[in-house]
Amino acid sequence: MTTLRMTEDHEWIRMDSSDSGTVGITQFAQEQLGDIVFVELPAIGRRLARGEDAAVIESVKAAAECKAPVSGTVTEVNAALADAPGKVNQDPTGAGWFFKLRLDDVKQLEALMDDAAYRAKTAK
Amino acid sequence: MTDAPLARTPLHALHLELGARLVAFAGYEMPVQYPAGILAEHLHTRSAASLFDVSHMGQARLPMSAAAAVETLVPVDVLGLAPGRQRYAFFTNEAGGILDDLMFSNASDHYFVVVNAARKEHDFALLAKHCSAEVLAGRALLALQGPLAGEVMRRLAPEAAALEFMQTCTATLEGAACFVSRSGYTGEDGFEISVCAADADRLARLLLAQPGVAAAGLGARDSLRLEAGLCLYGHDMDDATTPVEAGLEWAIQKVRRRGGAREGGFPGASVILEQLERGTARRRVGLVPEGRAPVREGALLQDAAGRAVGRVTSGGFGASANAPLAMGYVDSPLAAPGVQLNAVVRGKLRHCRVSALPFIPHRYHRRKSQ
Lengths: 124, 370
Description:
The structure holds two protein chains of two kinds.
Chain A: E1 4-6, E2 11-15, E3 20-25, H1 27-33, E4 36-40, E5 47-48, E6 53-59, E7 63-67, E8 72-77, H2 87-90, E9 99-103, H3 115-122
Antiparallel strand pairs in A: 1-2, 2-3, 3-9, 4-6, 5-8, 6-7, 8-9
Chain B: H1 12-17, E1 21-25, E2 28-33, H2 38-47, E3 49-53, E4 58-62, H3 67-71, E5 86-92, E6 98-106, E7 111-115, H4 120-130, E8 134-135, E9 139-145, H5 149-156, H6 158-161, E10 168-173, E11 176-181, E12 190-196, H7 197-208, E13 213-215, H8 218-227, H9 269-278, E14 282-289, E15 300-302, E16 308-318, E17 323-331, E18 340-345, E19 348-355
Parallel strand pairs in B: 3-13
Antiparallel strand pairs in B: 1-2, 3-9, 4-7, 4-8, 5-6, 6-7, 9-12, 10-11, 11-12, 14-17, 14-19, 15-16, 15-18, 16-17, 18-19
Helix pairs in contact in B: 2-8
């Protein structure tokens, strides 16, 4: 399995090819949010700047944003979340993915955290 | 989050043991959910029974002689409340606004009151000006809620299981002297059990050991009361909202209304009594947003022409309704089931249908004839 890179805001991106990646939120994020009841995904073709609000996550407790970890263009979204938003809770880095992105500049990945750095950040 | 140290309830150790997620609420460290999660805890309450720690709420006892004085604070029939009965009430201000809502019980040799955690200092100071209220700081309050609650109580305290909705009694549970009411904040049958702090942990563990009983947190309590159409103080009502605007006329007995034997005599009586006869400019309503996304507190409501007609005061996801649900205030001509409005959410319009309350029918334990 290809490695995940994480943001300070608890999104992850996994590269699927040299210039495209899948984005979602981390296990830590889904635990903090609690039961997720709705995800508003970006339109396919939308250009996203790094750090821009890309998706809205509604849990039973509150609304939260998923930001774009890097700049790029949305190429696909996880339509299964419309009927089963709970997939984000059950499998946040697998079936609970949000959208796929064609990156503007893969060098932006270097600013993201690897697993060890992210674990250190989220450890109590 | 606040910098002041948070108070803990007598069940704090039990919450930690059960894996609760604790949050700051009204100055207390309270469980918002347990590992099962809010949706599961909500559904469990409607299908079996849940135990909620509501020890953060304020409890006090008043002498029987306080009844007339209390009637100067609430538009409710206190003097006529029979022994063993409980009544919903609210303190009002001179403008007819609500200072807090409360549960008031006639415990035969004293009155027992339960007020909101965030308002207890205010409420107890108000009561102290009018009577000799004894604050019961050393007591916990446990809420056992759900269709299995009666069966659980039958095993542990048959005298409490014989109660009907809004009745109270003293009962001994596992050797602990308790004051029990058949009421709650979920729309389900259930009990609220006042017990001294020293016995609370033992009693909570006994209740959790009963078949079908699981712990539930404040998150589920909030979504359950929303489905049940029950107001949350500071959200669905406040000091600028009158009981008539909030749709709580049913709690103002005839004896305190115009022509009643003890008409008026509470703060804001002229406003409230007038509104009871002539209505109000705005009303609390239920709202069902289209789609799956919750419409939350604070969202502006518009009519089809884009005119501002109200605001959402509570909103979330109803696990039993399996849909987003909300409550809010709208101009009275629009306060009719079926009216279509729009809520402004993140700059976009969301269709909302005005709905009767409650969203999920109450299942209180009442005699069939009532």
